[in-house]
Inverse folding.
């Protein structure tokens, strides 16, 4: 475990009433593997997970999905916007390997604007073109 980065009890969404409140009034962003319900509120970023038997009939598969998502959340939590996050896994998540699950989670959080956008890779320079006129050497 990374020093200083933990997943304590107060950053978990656990109560049925909390899940119901988040599902009722949160904004939802989805991908083929995951749906994230984000309710902006004060306090630290909190995570709730919903992985049903429709996703994977075997408990070991459902627990793997939850373990990967909890770990990814734990590492990203300092950068996340405050609020409550409920992640609902979809059946495609059962066939995905761990790096693909992490990438899907990261992607859906960026689309939900919970994380700062990543620097776009491209050929253009990151800084603007200098506005100093070029002398013609006369």
């Amino acid at each position: 475990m990374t020093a200083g980065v933990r997943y304590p009890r107060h950053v978990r969404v656990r109560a049925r009433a909390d899940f119901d409140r988040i599902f009722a009034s949160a904004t939802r962003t989805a991908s083929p593997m995951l749906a994230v319900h984000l309710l902006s509120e004060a306090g630290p970023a909190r995570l709730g997970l919903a992985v049903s038997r429709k996703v994977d009939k075997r408990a070991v598969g459902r627990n793997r999905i939850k373990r990967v998502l909890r770990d990814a959340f734990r590492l990203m939590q300092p950068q996340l916007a405050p609020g409550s996050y409920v992640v609902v896994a979809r059946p495609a998540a059962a066939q995905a390997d761990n790096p693909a699950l992490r990438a899907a989670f990261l992607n859906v959080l960026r689309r939900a604007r919970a994380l700062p956008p990543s620097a776009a890779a491209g050929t253009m320079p990151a800084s603007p073109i200098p506005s100093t006129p070029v002398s013609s050497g006369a």
Remarks:
- The helical segments are 16-25, 59-76, 92-95, 98-111.
- Residues 2 and 75 are 8 Å apart (CA to CA).
- The mean pLDDT is 87.
- Residues 9-111 form a domain with the Ribosomal Protein S5; domain 2 fold (CATH 3.30.230.10).
